[in-house]
Write a structure and sequence with these properties.
48% helix; mainly alpha; two-stranded antiparallel ribbon
């Protein structure tokens, strides 16, 4: 439990740490992955398992492609975790959709939720998965033309922008770093909430 709390504190610290502003740097032969978004205080570039290769300062195209795949997996899990934390806290506070007033929060909802609601949940998840994709790429893409996405996870699809294209590269990097770190904190947060619920002391940390 102490390890979980320590990890949560580290994730929380990283979530509010200032982002490095350097753009992707290249060496003579490859890309320096140690300068990518997410390598920052307090741990800096931390890869004890060498998942970025044995020489991350000079990554090959194959290693860069694998890094970008793993970064997208991290980003997606972070987005889901942020929704999970908000959803858990909302239901824990007693807020329900009409007709679901008797459904408990947390793990208790798994057995109390009717099968039809699970079917609706699965259908909604499938639709969200199909919509939140680069619509210019397979397998979900239906739009014609070349993708304008700047990075994996950029799902604007030339439809919604909020002024993103008018901002500087440093501003974009900072915003992407904030999302990544908030996702990291949320993954630790939802894990901590579930652990404490199973331990039976969730009421000691939530009002």
């Amino acid at each position: 439990m102490k390890t979980t709390i320590l990890a949560t504190l580290i994730a929380g610290t990283a979530a509010f740490a200032p982002a490095q502003q350097a753009a992707r740097s290249t060496s003579l032969n490859g890309v320096d992955l140690t300068k990518e978004i997410g390598a920052q205080a307090p741990l800096g570039f931390f890869d004890p398992t060498e998942s970025c290769g044995s020489n991350p300062t000079d990554a090959s195209p194959e290693e860069v492609a694998e890094f970008e795949r793993k970064r997208w997996v991290e980003l997606k899990h972070g987005r889901i975790a942020m929704l999970a934390v908000v959803g858990y806290l909302v239901t824990y506070a007693g807020i329900r959709f009409p007709g679901a007033e008797d459904i408990p929060s947390g793990f208790g909802a798994l057995s109390a939720t009717p099968g039809m609601v699970w079917a609706q949940f699965a259908a909604t998840t499938a639709m969200m998965e199909a919509a939140n994709q680069d619509q210019f790429k397979a397998p979900w893409g239906t739009a014609e033309g070349e993708s304008k996405a700047e990075f994996k996870g950029d799902f604007r699809n030339q439809f919604i922008d909020f002024g993103w294209d008018s901002q500087s590269d440093a501003w974009k990097r900072r915003k992407r770093t904030i999302e990544l770190n908030q996702g990291r904190a949320a993954m630790m947060g939802i894990a901590g909430i579930m652990i404490h619920e199973q331990l039976g002391n969730l009421s000691d940390i939530l009002p």
